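pls ignore typos typing on phone
zinc ion + seq
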Amino acid sequence: MSYEQYEQTAASIQMMVRGTIIYISGGVYDIFRGEGSQRNLQLLINSFPTLAERAAQARKHAVSYRGFHVGCAALASNPEEKGADQTAIFLGCNEKTASDAQTVCAERVAVQSALAWGYRHIVAIAIEGPPQEDHGSGIKSPTLHPCKDCRAAFQYTPNVSPNTYIITLNPMSGQGQICLFRELILIHHGPNHLQWHALGRPT
Ligand SMILES: [Zn+2]
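k done
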């Protein structure tokens, strides 16, 4: 992909967000060259406004004793299907009813639901929630990234791949970020953690 094409791609994603500022990380450029990723990108562009809206809707149903509400929408496809891609959006919201109660993360609910319905390929995960300091890396990002437990889980989950898009939206500032899952791992854990565990993961 040429730089001009990359710029067009970045502009088209920005247009999808209706005034939200989306930062495209430089690393996405490299990944867009892949055949599979082009397909992912088209699926993402087709679904983007709906995906963001669904994450916001799911967030309204979150339960948190401390008012920390997160919503997630996972765009899934079944690449094995002949003809047009079958896609579906699966939702999750977080639940933490007390400080000593186990956390149920919105992201893992959405991804697990896709798995339960037989969708083996997550194209993108959109997350809306208030940003906070990451408990694993200590990084403070302008949007809420999936937590260290979700990141670790997604390195094993068969339907999340290194090329799954991670889109994070800040409901207060209107800011958004987009990167690939492998970039998210790089940001928080560095290059030594880029191993992928193919438990039935499609290539
Ligand atoms: Zn989590």
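Confidence is low (pLDDT under 50) at residues 15-35. The pocket of zinc ion is lined by residues 105, 107, 146-147, 149-150 (CB under 6 Å). more later
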